[in-house]
Each structure stands twice: as structure tokens, then as C-alpha cells.
Amino acid sequence: MTLLLVASVLATASLCQAASPEENYLATRDRFIASIKALDEAGQSDEALKQQKLARVELTRLLQRIVGPVSIKGFATTAKGTIKGTIKGNIRANIGSLFPGDMGILAPSTACAHAAPGEKGFVIVTSETLLGHWLVEHKDWWGDKIANVPQQVSAALASEPFYTQALQTDAAVSRYAELPVGKPAGAKFATAMLVARSQVLDPRPPDELLVALVKDGRVLIASSAAAVKVKPMPVCHKIWVDAQHEAIAAQEAYIASELKDQDASDRRDKMDEEGAAAFHRCFAERAGSQPFFAPLVRQAQTLIGAMAGRK
Quick check: pTM over 0.85? Predict the structure, then answer.
């Protein structure tokens, strides 16, 4: 059954040779998703999992044709492994679940990734066309209660929601500071930021750089561990502590009401959110004057140069 479905998918794909490589990839991906859905709904979960495995092989082949060869100093170029939150191999298709309804469905299914030695970072490579399609698919991914991904490529690459969704590490990406980088010759766009990942609002020392480059129709996104330690800023930390005192008081009032005082519960959540936002504003405003800032800017600029193909 699985082989027949795969043959059907690939046979249909062969009829799409007049389409662009990106259109062919997306059509093939969507047919695999439909096949997997049909198997899963028919109770053939084992066959559906086999189909997903075969789909990843074929989609990886198509993706590698689209993005072409990638050679970036410090990053691997041989094929092995799959991405699942942490880097465990070298080049691979950055494809999540193809089961409809899964949290990872479609989320990172339009790029290839390259791991740095020692699993200290990675580069994800895709095309502007595929990224544009991904943005449309994720326009309302979180509904209307949480900020969604911007629809312009440059705005998306500079936003927290994009990295939280696209990197799929089960943690939100929080931007602590923008790192001013120059755009290499021939590049359309370049940006860099200092970030941390967390599942809670509590601010923590940022330890990762996210750098993005758009050049020659390709989009390259790099993650690299911060080369210098970022020390806390007491004045910013105090903002968070003060907000937490108010949040704790609201929480205690909520508990004392036997969980009936909704205003107290809302006040607790509001103080958490406002405290975190104020902390990040404070950090971003003061980061440029800190000793760690200049070295991180140089690190980001060096990575931008490597991604642009500079020797």
C-alpha cells in the first residue's frame, strides 16, 4: 500500500516538470501530506509513518536541488541526520511532522540545515520563494491572541515569532538586542540579534546569535553560540524583580479568594507580561554600551561574511 502511494505521488510529480522547482516541491509535499492523512484516518498508522519516512527522503532531494550547494566556513556540507530541536547531524532537510494536526505540521518544511562542528550552531538555507510561501501558511498560525509572523521576508527575519515557529525547539525565542551589521555586497538584506530561548517569561542571560542574510534568491539563517558571556544588568533585573513582587501579591490574593477573584488572576498575568517587556526594553536600550556588545557585533558580522561567501 505504501509503495503504491509513493509511486502515485512521484508519478504525479513527474507531470509537474513545467512548474518551477519550488512549485514542484510544494505540490509534492502536499500530496505526501494528503497520502499520510488518508492512511492515518484509515487506521494504518504504521504505513503512514513509513510514508513520512519516504517523504522526507524525496523532499530532501527536491530541497537540495532548490537551495544548491552551500559552503560556509565552520559548517558541515555532508548529508546525514534530521533536525529535532537540537542538532544531531550535518546537512539535512529541516522537515517536521507531515501528519495533519501535529504541532510541527508544515512549520519547518521548506529548508535544508547545516550543523557547525561540536553542535555549536547551524545554518538553515531556503529560497525567498519558499520562505514567502511559508509565511503565508503561518499568517494566522497562533490565531488573533498572539503576535503572528510578519508577512514581509525582511520583517519576518527580524521578528521573534518567526524564529519561535521556524526553529521548533519547544521554546520561545526572545530578542534581547539588535546587533548592527553591514549588508555584504550583492546582498538584499542582513540582520542579526542577540537572543535567548525559554519556556517561561523569566528573563535569563542571552547566549545565542541569530543572523539572517538574503542574497541571490536564497535565505540563510544562522544560529551561533555567543562568543562572549553576557553579564546581567542590575538596573534591568530590578525592573523584573519589582514586577514579580506585584505578580506574587496578585497571585496570593487570587489564592485567598479560592480562585474566584478573576481580576487578581488577570493582574498577576499582566504584571508578568509587562515586567518581562519592560526588562527587555531596558536591556535593548543599554546593550550598546556594555563590554559584551562590540565583540558580539564583530562575531555577527564575521558570520554574515561567511554566509555571503567571503573568504
Answer: no
